[in-house]
Each structure stands twice: as structure tokens, then as C-alpha cells.
Amino acid sequence: MDSMRPKNQGDEAVSEIRAVPLDLPHEIGNRIVRCRKERGMSRVDLSRSLKVARDRLAKWERGANPPPIGMLLALAQQLGVSVDELLGGERLMERRAARKERDELIRHLVAMRKLLK
């Protein structure tokens, strides 16, 4: 009988929530470490700039606890990335480079097509 009940929007939201990887805190932690090292920052430097204890930052980096939502923007700003990138989105600079490369290729193809006419 349960299969006969109509689906509602809440059902879709639940299925989306279940699609979130269980190891997301570890992935975020790995991104924090990568971005911190790319900027040449030590854990001490980052924890001081965020005004959080080093052991708290270490837990975020290990994936033991994810950073609280209220810290994501400050963390992303200190690491020089977007919150989207921190949470797993594509790197903004990589997207821009790919878009620029694609646009150049299109211009080149258009120019070649004009020459062949």
C-alpha cells in the first residue's frame, strides 16, 4: 500500500540527503590541508588567523569533525578559495581556465571555417 501513496517534494529531498557521501568530513578535511599547504600556511598560522584552537583545526583536517557552518566563509577566505570549492566544488580558477581554453578553441575553429569557405 505504501507504494501507492503519491510522492511529494519531501521524498526527493530525503533521497538527495542520502546521496551525500558518508566520508564528506574527511574530504573537506583533505581539502583544508591541501589548500593550507598550497598557501604555505602552517596549522598554527591558520588556527591563529581563524581564532580557533589548533586541536580544533586538527580535528577538521582529520575529518573527525567538520568545520561549523558559521566558520566556512572565514575558512575559505583564509585559504583563498570559495566555500563551494571547500565543500567539494570545482576550483574556480580551473573552471575559468577551462572556459578560456574552450573559448579560444571556438574562435580558432570559427577562423579556420572562414578560411575554408
What is the helix/strand order?
Answer: HHHHHHH
The total beta strand count reads 0
- The proportion of strand residues reads under 5%
CATH domain fold name of the domain at 20-89: 434 Repressor (Amino-terminal Domain)
Helix/strand structural class = mainly alpha
Reported for the largest beta sheet, the result is: none
Distance between the termini: 66 Å
Question: Tally the helices: what do you get?
Answer: 7
Q: Give start-end ranges of low-pLDDT stretches.
A: 11-20
Describe the protein's architecture and organization.
It is a single chain. By secondary structure, this protein is an all-alpha fold. The chain has a domain at 20-89: lambda repressor-like DNA-binding domains (434 Repressor (Amino-terminal Domain)), CATH 1.10.260. It contains seven helices and no strands. Helix 3 (43-50) crosses helix 4.
Structure summarized in a few sentences:
The protein is an all-alpha fold.
Please tag this protein with its features.
mainly alpha, 434 Repressor (Amino-terminal Domain), single chain, 117 residues
Secondary structure elements and pairings:
Blueprint: H1 9-18, H2 24-38, H3 43-50, H4 54-62, H5 69-79, H6 83-87, H7 92-116
Helix pairs in contact: 2-4, 3-4
